Amino acid sequence: SRLMLTILLAITISFSGFKQSDPVYNLKFKRECGKLAANLGANVLSSDKFDTATTHIVAPPGNRTMKTLVGSLMGSWIVQPQWIVDSSNAKKFLPEKRFVLINHRF
Fold this sequence. Notes:
By secondary structure, the protein is α/β, with parallel strands linked by helices. Helices cover 37% and strands 11% of the residues. It has helices at residues 2-9, 27-39, 66-74, 82-90, and strands at 12-15, 43-44, 56-58, 77-79. It has a four-stranded parallel β-sheet with strand order 2-1-3-4, with helices on both faces. The chain is globular, with a radius of gyration of 13 Å.
C-alpha cells in the first residue's frame, strides 16, 4: 500500500558535531539544513541523543562524536551537510554514496 511504502522510505535525520563557534558548521547552518530536509519530507530530530529511528546522521567532515559512532554501529548513513544542500537544490533526496563521511571508521 502507499502508506507502507511511505513508512519504508521515510528519512529520519539527526545532526551531530555542529558548534556555534565554527565559521561554517555552526548552529545557524544546522537549523537551515534542518529546514531544507524537512521541506523535502524528512523527519528531523532535535535531540542530542541517538534515536533508533534515525536513518541519517548529518555531521561536518572529519567529525566524530558518540552519536556518529552509535549511528555507524546501528547502520545509519553518516553524511556531510552537503547532501542536504545538494538534495534541496535537486528537489529530492540524492543517493547518499557521494556524501558519506570519508574515513569514518572508529
